[in-house]
């Protein structure tokens, strides 16, 4: 998957969990919880959705690595390959 | 399965603040001796939390160790926090606000929140904390009901959640903004105002029955209720902090609850400061390694948290905790919803100490039933009533109250008269009166007392939803949903969830011309999240052609839930229009 594919997948799953967010409004460095106001249950739902979509199992200790769109793309790319 | 009792050894029993001897002698009159009172008589929460410790020579002790999202630490001493509270009180007073004025906070866990809460109380005004993750509607309705005069918030929260309706709240005179950036119109910058204010303020001569706090709580029907609490509640905060949380002066204590909810105020501000501990305040949200790191690095001794967080730690497995040293932990307590026995046993394995579940609610103002340090724990039980608290399990039939036998399920009830009992639902006398029947306060929780006197939570007697420890009223959620063009009617229930306890789920019937679709489901959830905030909005929307209703047109939430869970449908004699 290219960076663009991962980015698209992440944004789709994010806005499925939190449909109040418009994909175009998500900045690369927006913090999912502090800026986009996901709560911890949203976060867990996003982790589950990413697992289903990309086959990547994200352990609890690595949640900070998907805290922003930019971080998540780098992290997920590393995990997929 | 039944879980084995977790016994306590003699050393633990005798080191506890609440020994059998203390319990036997306890009465609320004597409990006042834990406090100083105002120099000229009267009682004020802020004085007990701050001023008296400074006067007694403890001004240099750290009151709050604040950890920013970035991990920076800032220590506020008792003297420093006392001065900041005085500055905040002076800011209010300079803007012409008088005792009795209503001050709301809408802030994350930042140091100014604590100064605002205590400064408000010092000034004899009423403090109401709001949860910063609320959407605009819950914020607005709570400001309206409470006729708020002052709001303390940040520039970003103001812009996103308040600016759009600010002018609709006629009572709102002053908006104080915490920001380094440009100030929105008609707002006052908080930090410069505090810096310019005097650091001394003569504490208002409040008395036991003067209003101190209004905490909003959800109702099954109608609007949220403002539970009114008085300065006299501080007697219960002092005693329950000492007995149920085993707080000792100088302890390092961490309450993870947000002050936007009652736990975060009673046990995240008042009880710990009154008991002169050092509080850890973490600005960030739950994060596995951050939390384990704080417990270790800050040498936390007493920790008060919630089942949802405990279950998130459990999900990560015991190995995730292995690198950390928790040897400073002395007492662990949990509240918000029942802690499952697995969590109690798990915590003993991981931390070397079991969690002690306790029970109380917004209306009780403080902990009522608890597993205390000297008690053997029955995992899954909420414990026994604290000294000074008489609790019962009752059934009400035709207005008469009957106490249940051991093992029988009924409504958890308390004998009125403890100091932190709510004194009113704001402007809702009838709803308040309904809580008191036959000499009992009825909690709305179903429970059972076993033959040994331990209380066990069974469920809610009404349709309120407990999600991640937050009490959510279905009516408030339904009201937001039916504002969506597509929705004709909505019923909101809580469905069981491994981590959150329950998740908010909405059943909706659509208006003519609308068809169920994934896009519509998302659109509805999106609107609900914008209005209500993530903590309150439904996580799932389920489409129905028609919702089950009684003859009088009331939607039967209970029936939807029973069907969803495959439980008996109960009495459906009033069912007129069934679900389709």
List the helices and strands and how they pair.
The complex is a heterodimer of chains A (81) and B (580).
Chain A: H1 3-17, H2 40-54, H3 69-80
Helix pairs in contact in A: 1-2, 1-3
Chain B: H1 10-15, H2 20-25, H3 28-31, H4 45-58, E1 62-67, E2 73-77, H5 78-94, E3 102-106, H6 111-122, E4 126-130, H7 136-146, E5 150-154, H8 155-162, E6 174-178, E7 188-189, H9 190-196, E8 211-217, E9 225-230, H10 234-243, E10 252-255, H11 262-274, E11 278-282, H12 288-297, E12 302-305, H13 307-315, E13 331-334, H14 341-351, E14 355-359, E15 369-370, E16 384-385, E17 391-397, E18 400-403, E19 409-414, E20 424-425, H15 429-433, E21 436-437, E22 440-449, E23 455-460, E24 465-467, E25 470-472, H16 474-481, E26 487-497, E27 501-510, H17 518-532, E28 540-544, E29 549-550, H18 557-565, E30 575-577
Parallel strand pairs in B: 1-11, 3-4, 3-5, 5-6, 6-7, 10-11, 10-12, 12-13, 13-14, 27-28
Antiparallel strand pairs in B: 1-2, 8-9, 9-20, 14-15, 15-16, 17-18, 17-19, 19-22, 21-22, 22-23, 24-25, 26-27, 29-30
Helix pairs in contact in B: 4-5, 4-6, 4-11, 5-6, 5-9, 10-11
What does it look like?
The complex is a heterodimer of chains A (81) and B (580). By secondary structure, chain A is an all-alpha fold. Chain A has one domain (3-80): ACP-like (Non-ribosomal Peptide Synthetase Peptidyl Carrier Protein, Chain A, Orthogonal Bundle), CATH 1.10.1200. Chain A is 52% helix and 0% strand. Chain A has three helices and no strands. Chain A has helices at 3-17, 40-54, 69-80. Chain A is globular, with a radius of gyration of 11 Å. Chain B is of the alpha/beta class and 580 residues long. Chain B folds into two domains: 10-445, Rossmann fold (3-Layer(aba) Sandwich), CATH 3.40.50.12780; 465-577, 2-Layer Sandwich (GMP Synthetase, Chain A, domain 3). In chain B, 30% of the residues lie in helices and 25% in strands. In chain B, α10 crosses α11 (262-274). The interface between A and B is medium-sized, with 20 and 28 residues.
């Amino acid at each position: 998957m290219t960076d663009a594919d991962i980015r698209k997948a992440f944004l789709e799953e994010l806005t499925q969990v939190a449909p109040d967010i418009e994909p175009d409004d998500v900045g690369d460095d927006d913090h999912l919880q502090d800026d986009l106001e996901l709560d911890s249950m949203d976060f867990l739902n996003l982790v589950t959705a990413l697992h289903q979509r990309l086959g990547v199992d994200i352990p609890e200790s690595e949640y900070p690595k998907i805290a922003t769109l930019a971080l998540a793309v780098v992290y997920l790319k590393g995990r997929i390959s | 399965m039944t879980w084995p009792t977790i016994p306590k050894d003699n050393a633990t029993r005798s080191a506890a603040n609440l020994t059998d001897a203390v319990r036997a002698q306890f009465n609320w009159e004597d409990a006042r001796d834990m406090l100083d009172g105002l120099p000229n008589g009267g009682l004020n929460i802020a004085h007990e939390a701050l001023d008296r410790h400074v006067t007694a020579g403890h001004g240099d002790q750290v009151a709050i160790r604040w950890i920013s999202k970035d991990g920076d630490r800032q220590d506020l001493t008792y003297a420093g926090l006392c001065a900041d509270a005085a500055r905040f009180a002076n800011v209010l007073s300079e803007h012409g606000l008088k005792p009795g004025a209503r001050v709301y906070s809408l802030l994350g866990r930042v140091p100014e929140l604590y100064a605002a809460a205590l400064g408000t109380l010092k000034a004899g005004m009423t403090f109401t904390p709001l949860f910063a993750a609320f959407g605009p509607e819950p914020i607005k309705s709570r400001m309206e009901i409470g006729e708020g005069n002052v709001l303390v918030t940040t520039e970003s929260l103001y812009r996103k959640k308040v600016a759009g309706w600010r002018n609709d709240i006629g009572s709102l005179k002053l908006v104080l903004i915490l920001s380094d950036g440009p100030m929105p119109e008609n707002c006052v910058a908080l930090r410069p105002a505090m810096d310019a204010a005097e650091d001394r303020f003569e504490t208002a001569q409040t008395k036991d029955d003067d209003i101190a706090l209004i905490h909003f709580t959800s109702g099954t029907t109608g609007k949220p209720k403002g539970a009114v609490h008085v300065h006299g509640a501080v007697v219960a905060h002092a005693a329950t902090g000492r007995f149920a949380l085993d707080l000792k002066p100088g302890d390092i204590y961490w309450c993870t609850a947000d002050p936007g909810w009652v736990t975060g105020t009673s046990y995240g501000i008042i009880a710990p400061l009154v008991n002169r501990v050092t509080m850890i305040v973490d600005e960030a949200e739950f994060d596995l390694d951050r939390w384990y790191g704080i417990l270790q690095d800050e040498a936390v001794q007493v920790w008060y948290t919630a089942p949802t967080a405990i279950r998130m730690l459990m999900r990560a497995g015991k190995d995730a905790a292995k690198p950390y040293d928790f040897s400073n932990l002395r007492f662990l307590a949990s509240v918000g919803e029942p802690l499952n026995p697995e969590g109690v046993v798990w915590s003993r394995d991981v931390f070397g100490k079991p969690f002690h579940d306790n029970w109380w609610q917004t209306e009780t103002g403080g902990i009522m039933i608890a597993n205390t340090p000297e008690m053997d724990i029955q995992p899954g039980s909420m414990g026994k009533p604290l000294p000074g608290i008489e609790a019962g399990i009752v059934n009400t039939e035709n207005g008469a109250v009957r106490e249940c036998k051991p093992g029988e399920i009924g409504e958890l009830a308390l004998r009125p008269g403890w100091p932190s009992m709510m004194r009113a639902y704001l402007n809702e006398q009838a709803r308040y009166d309904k809580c008191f029947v036959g000499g009992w306060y009825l909690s709305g929780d179903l429970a059972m007392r076993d033959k040994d006197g331990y209380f066990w939570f069974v469920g809610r007697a009404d349709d309120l939803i407990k999600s991640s420890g937050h009490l959510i009223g279905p009516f408030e959620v339904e009201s937001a949903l039916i504002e969506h063009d597509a929705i004709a009617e909505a019923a909101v229930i809580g469905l069981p969830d491994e981590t959150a306890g329950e998740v908010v789920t909405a059943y909706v019937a659509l208006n003519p011309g609308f068809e169920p679709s994934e896009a519509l489901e998302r659109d509805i959830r999106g609107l609900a999240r914008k209005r209500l905030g993530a903590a309150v909005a439904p996580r799932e929307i389920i489409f129905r052609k028609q919702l089950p209703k009684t003859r009088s047109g009331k939607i039967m939430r209970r029936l939807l839930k029973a069907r969803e869970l495959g439980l008996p449908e109960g009495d459906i004699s009033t069912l007129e229009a069934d679900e389709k």
